[in-house]
Amino acid sequence: MTAAMTPGTAMAPGTVHVVGAGLAGLAAAVALADAGRPVRLYDAAPRAGGRCRSFDDTALGARIDNGNHLMMAANTAVADFLDRIGAPDGLYKAPDARFDFLDLASGTRWSVHPNRGALAWWLLVPGRRVAGAGLWAHLRAGGLLLAGARDRVVDRVPAQGTLYDRFILPLTEAVMNCGPDRASARLLRRVMLETFARGGDACRPWIAREGLSEALVDPALAHLAGHGVSLETGARLSAVERRDGRATALLFGRDRGRVALDAGDAVVLALPPDQTGRLLDLDVPQGAVPIVNVHFRLDEPLAPPGEPRVLGLVGGTAHWLFLRDRLASVTVSNATDLAQRPNDAIARTCWADVSRALGRPAEPMPPVRVIVEKRATFLQTPDNVARRPHSRTDLANLALAGDWTDTGLPATIEGAIRSGFTAAETVGARAPAAPRTKPAGARAA
Fold first, then answer.
1. Phi and psi at residue 343, in whole multiples of 5°?
2. Residue 237 · residue 119 · CB < 8 Å
3. Considering only CA atoms, which of 205, 269, 206, 217 is closest in space to residue 85?
4. SS3 266
5. Residues 6 or more apart from 285 whose CB is under 8 A from it?
6. How far is 152 from 148, CA to CA, in rounded Å?
7. Which of 65, 173, 177, 285 can pair with 384 through a Cys bridge, CB separation 3.0 to 4.6 Å?
8. pLDDT by residue (tens digit) across 69-121?
9. Per-residue exposure over 198-236, b if at least 16 CB sit within 10 Å of its own CB, e if not
10. Model pLDDT, residue 437
11. Segment (H or E) for 276
């Protein structure tokens, strides 16, 4: 991990143009502004946040997130970002590392409950580990520690048994957004080393109290405004002009046109992989995997104010159930098949799981909003992980950011913010790197 620049760090003169105002771009802009660098921030959308944002849903009469996200106390970049933007309380930080689960098929409930310290004595206590899985099964999951660059999760963890069904499968799909038969074992190993291997204190869940925008996006924009940085919306980048190993201009749509870069200027591209690949002729990860989120609005509160809850579900369609105020929100990762179905069918399938989990009647179904994020993450197979580019490019004044770049982590909020901090460091002062261009015959997704 590259540490974020501290306020007051001396940097080269010139404006940094940050293109893309998702969390990666926001993190880069915040770090640069804190270091005293002039920043211009652009996004093609009418608002910041990218795939992590909140909006008012008139049909539900509630404010919802476009997707549910769970972070952990081990997420150091998230913590740093929150401190920088003055919003350390935007996330509800659970006092204990406890993950509740329900098997919808059998009705069995259990909790994975690591102890606070790194010495994992909780594995010896049946009431703290996965129900129906013995100590030996849990220890065999340590095969992830031997993961090589080409290994999938199933190459290191037995793809059978209770532990696999009730923990490895849901964990992999939640973290990697693809099944253990495809997901990079090395990326999952990195997550386990940064969380469960450090003990319960590192595993405490962090969840947005109100919404992702309120917790992460709006405070970042306010912080940037304090540095004289405002978001320029409707700015879709169509080309990057280059000469002598440097970016010389950015070409946007007709409203903004061509933005020339002065000698001391720099660029951070915090855009999706396919768009970045086309703009720079880079080899990037191929393919994307959808995530489906379904929000139900009930008549009574489901969790204490400001203290959202999450329940893991196995044996059904829904994977994770987030409870906040009167909202019951379902997340289904690795949702390629589900995403093809009509919204009404998705809603009814998920409500069958939610009503069972909450002990509610199956009919009538409450007001609902279905959100299908078709390109939620890149496909995190070993082959694609090998194609992740570094922040540094062959253009001396241009760096990349995004959860799909080579952060060493899966495509998560933590990875996105780390990538933004790394990009801010990269455009500070450095020499050009060797080119990473597409091999002959390769095409962007």
1. -60, -40
2. no
3. 217
4. strand
5. 273, 378, 379, 384, 385, 387, 388, 404
6. 9
7. 285
8. 999 999 999 999 999 999 999 999 999 999 999 999 999 999 999 999 999 99
9. bbbebbbbbbbbbbbbbbbbbbbbebbeebebebbeebb
10. 39
11. helix 273-280
For residues 320 and 104, what is the distance between their CA atoms, to the nearest angstrom?
Answer: 12
Is residue 126 reached through a cis peptide bond, with omega within 30 degrees of 0 on the bond before it? no
In 10 A of CB 120, how many CB atoms? 17
Helix (H) or strand (E) holding 343: helix 343-358
pLDDT of 342 reads 98
- Structural contact between residues 264 and 277, judged by C-beta atoms closer than 8 angstroms: no
Closest by alpha carbon to 423, among 400, 443, 406? 400
Do 420 and 399 contact (CB within 8 A), yes or no?
no
CA atoms of 268 and 344, how far apart (whole Å):
40
Q: Is the separation of the CB atoms in 268 and 19 below 8 Å?
A: yes
Q: Which residues contact 411 (CB under 8 A, 6 or more apart)?
A: 177, 377, 378, 380, 403, 404
* Cα separation, 233 vs 218, whole angstroms: 15
User: Please, what is the average pLDDT of the chain?
Assistant: 92
Residue in the structure block whose two tokens are 């579900």: 313
Provide the sign of the torsion angle of the four alpha carbons 74, 75, 76, 78, taken in this order: negative
Q: Residue 212: in which H helix or E strand, if any?
A: helix 212-212
| Residue 241 and residue 83 in contact, taking contact as beta carbons nearer than 8 Å | no
Cα 279 → chain centroid: 23
Task: Count the Cβ atoms, other than its own, within 10 Å of residue 119.
Answer: 8
Residue 322 phi, psi dihedral angles, 5° rounding:
-100, 130
Look up residue 394 and give its two tokens: 């062959």
- Do 66 and 293 touch, CB atoms closer than 8 A? yes
Tell if the pTM clears 0.85, that is, is over it: yes
Q: Work out whether strand 54-57 and strand 62-65 pair parallel, antiparallel, or are unpaired.
A: antiparallel
- What pLDDT sits at residue 5? 53
Write the pLDDT tens digit of every residue in 196-209. Answer: 999 999 999 999 99
DSSP per position, 385-427: HHTPPPSB-SSTTEEE-STTSS-SS-SSHHHHHHHHHHHHHHT
Assess contact for 69 and 208: CB atoms under 8 A.
yes
Inter-CA distances, 65 with 52, 169, 323, 411, Å: 7, 25, 12, 18
CB atoms inside a 10 Å sphere around CB 390 = 14
Sheet holding 258-260, edge to edge: 239-243, 246-251, 258-260
**What is d(CA 65, CA 56) in angstroms, rounded to the nearest whole number?**
9
